Amino acid sequence: MNTPIVRPLAELRDKVRDWKCRGETIGVVPTMGALHEGHLSLVRAAKAACDRVIVTLFVNPRQFNNAEDFAKYPRTEHADAALLGPLGVDLLFVPDGNEVYPPEHATVISVSGVTGPLEGAHRPGHFDGVATVVTLLFNMTQADRAFFGEKDWQQLQLVRRLALDLKLPIEIVPCPCVRAPDGLALSSRNQRLTPEGRSRAAALPRTLFDAARRIEAGEPAAGTLTAARAELEAAGIGPVEYLELRDGETLQAPQRGRPARLLVAAWLDGVRLIDNVAVVLP
Ligand code: PAF
Question: Name one GO molecular function term (predicted).
Fold first, then answer.
């Protein structure tokens, strides 16, 4: 059976009120749909930790800085509801754009610091769109826990910062990135790769993991990253927008004794791919 779809906020609020009256905990998995195994792993984590699970599906126009990317974003609502059915999700919340952002909507949530570099520098306005919609989704669902994938590492750090700074009564639960057998991180955008591009894409995680191992082994980061960029471009992946070693929490310069992260964004077949991996600095 497909997961029931709820669209009006008033209907969602009625369900949430009933659950809260019974003392049940609520988990939310925010998505933009086109669900794949990565999303399903978040749903399973939510099911294991909460009495009730809401998946939200909203292709948020405010986080796209390119109208064509927004238009091309895959929309597969019925297939998504069918995938969620067997997992026992209580409801799929698919709000109407006008209810999320009525014409008079005037509030933007902006998180500084963690959003400055990398995705923030290359996609102006993107993180304001994410922070605003995530805050709205948290308020609409009143969830106790929210589940986010580590694939979008910088987004995860933004959401953590947001929840702490605004003292939101919600626990942010990070979940490991899910990868295809060849190592490519699962993403709704992968389905836009040509078959040839899809087979070349495996060079992205391979090069990323290899560079991380070399830095952990004591090779100077700057030289390793220059060589890794050249390897990606030789494998037909490019342009590489960034390939950078950063502090894992603040996304600023890495510091010894703190968890670091190697993050990449690169184009392949006109599709922008991102990935990241933990690095233990020597
Ligand atoms: O990661 C995503 O799919 C989106 O950025 C999110 C968190 C659902 C907000 O629109």
Answer: pantoate-beta-alanine ligase activity
**pLDDT on residue 1:** 83
Q: Judging by DSSP bridges, how do beta strands 260-268 and 271-279 pair with one another? A: antiparallel
Cα–Cα distance measured from residue 206 to residue 81, given in angstroms and rounded to the nearest whole number: 33
What average pLDDT does the segment 185-192 reach? 94
What is the residue whose two structure tokens read 């986010």? 148
Q: Per the structure block, which two tokens stand in for 77?
A: 């609502």
Minimal-distance CA residue to ligand 1 atom 5:
130
DSSP 60-108: -GGG-S-HHHHHHS---HHHHHHHHGGGT-SEEE---HHHHS-TT----
Residues forming the active site: 39
Which atom of ligand 1 approaches the CA of 152 most closely?
A: 1
Average pLDDT of the segment spanning 90-119 = 98
- Residue 150, annotated ligand binder? yes
Is 233 marked within a binding site? no
CA of 148 to the centre of ligand 1 (A): 9
